[in-house]
Write a structure and sequence with these properties.
It contains 19 helices and 20 strands. The protein has 623 residues and is an alpha/beta fold. Strand 1 (2-13) and strand 2 (16-27) form a beta hairpin.
Amino acid sequence: MNYLSVENLTKSFGDRTIFQNLIFGIDKGQKVAIVAKNGQGKTTLLRCITGKESIDDGRIVFRKNLRVEFMQQSENLIGSNTILEEIYSYDLPEFKALKDYNYATRVQDEKLISSAFDAISELNAWDIETRVNQILSVLKFTDFNKFIDKLSGGQKKRVALAKVLIAEPDFLILDEPTNHLDLDMIEWLEDYLLKSKSTILMVTHDRYFLEVVCDTILELEEKTIFKYKGNFSYYLEKKSERQEQLASVIGKAKNQFKKELKWIRRQPKARGTKQKARIEAFYKTKKIANQNIDDDELEIPVKMERLGTKILECHRLNKEFDDVEIIKNFTYTFKRNERLGIVGDNGTGKSTFLNMLMGIEKPDSGKIVRGETVVFGYYSQKLLEVEKGKKVIDVIRDIADYIPLEKGREMSAAQFLEKFLFPRNMHHNFVEKLSGGEKRRLKLMTVLMKNPNFLILDEPTNDLDIFVMSVLEDYLRNFKGSLIVVSHDRYFMDKMVDHLFVFQRKGEVKDIIGNYTVYRNEKQISNSILRKKEQEKKLKLSSQSQNNKEKNNQKLSFKEKMEFEKIEKDIESLEAEKFKLTELLSIPNISSDDLMNYARRLSEVISELEKKTDRWLELSELN
């Protein structure tokens, strides 16, 4: 069953065509990813599909009566709302039915209760509150009443993600859903989407996500789209085959073109039909022969300064923020060719630790000793900051007109930009006009061109496309200096590091030998053992409780009997007060002050009733 049809879709910005005559469809249940190099129009395509961006030509048709939800990169939240208010402000039939039911029970209107009950049952929305709490908890929200404008950028992204997941739409569109999620959240989201019944269209650079979740890849390249019915590894295989076939066709066309060029130069102006047909065929051959296969590679032949024996030492470091321990009594000596990955939940201090190594943050106590020959290259999460009106080539020339390479060679700023996949026609573009990934790539250039021998990369893969990440990995594998990487990209971490610092709560840092997969496997085994021990403990306690009960045949003491009788009277009194308050709340034209006071008291009564009832049940078992 077709859910989305895109027909001859064309979009331009000024004189630049982003894509032209795109044709593809998505069927019910498919999980589709769009991949492309930065700046090729992935986000623009999603915005066109969802109507957020106008189109020049073509048609976009969703199946009728589909519920479609779109999580975009720029969240649109109301700052004065709390997290819960923002979630429940979503225009969902389930939320409306739940609100109607809560109101009906509050005013004790039997007709309204029956109607709301039927609506909730029809929508299967009885578990909506549980689902809201579960998803917000998984996304590491503890205070649901925190105001949106008090949240960090990453937390706002997670609220936006929670909203679309809770909606459980028929068609879910996600633009970089794993950004600002820690590794636990990413793995939970991967499992959630894999099991989801929603049809999914997403843009993501997470290659494990593409491998595990997606069953179809759409590659946006050279203003058109190629469809691959398979996961990421299948796509890579078929793309390679397609490029080989294209190379063969171009090679044959070039040979034919040379022969035809000699003939056409010998001919007078064509008059016969056969001659005209041959000339038309010549121009078609020329067009094929002049095609370029886009197989640019990111080469970084920058010279690296020699590392001495002393690299970097941390001695008994301690750091706190607002009474929260970030790092406690930490000592470590970094070595040559160190390949360290850093993982941990958001807020555990990973970026703070890097800032301390770089001298940007000071430890509360302890010291950091840096070797004299160490040249740091620090790629932080902070965005590239340049003056307005600055051109791409000026950013590089501000550092150096010529970049020293290995073996005494050098490279001009323009040549260096080309190596980083910035063609000549982009050198004089304004930096503010670049895509997020292009800005990241430009910033990476400014770090690497300073000849570092100790690279510190904080989330280097954010906003970089999978093609740039692949060649960056090639460079880092051949990098002879020391390397520290903080990343939520599991694929990147598996390939780049040989041991991990796991940042835990209360300032603890655990050193684990192996890559991310090794750590994750160990963690799963550890969690499994803990769960088994907890289950055994519960069974043991339950058994002991039963044995004690049978052994002692315990009865209520005199004091407990008096308490039991009093609780029965208290429950009766509270039930009566609850009924009276619900009647008062249903009075027409009730003042706002009375409404608030009655509602507040009703909440207190309900809470007290729950406590008294729980205690009554405990005592009744012994009675």
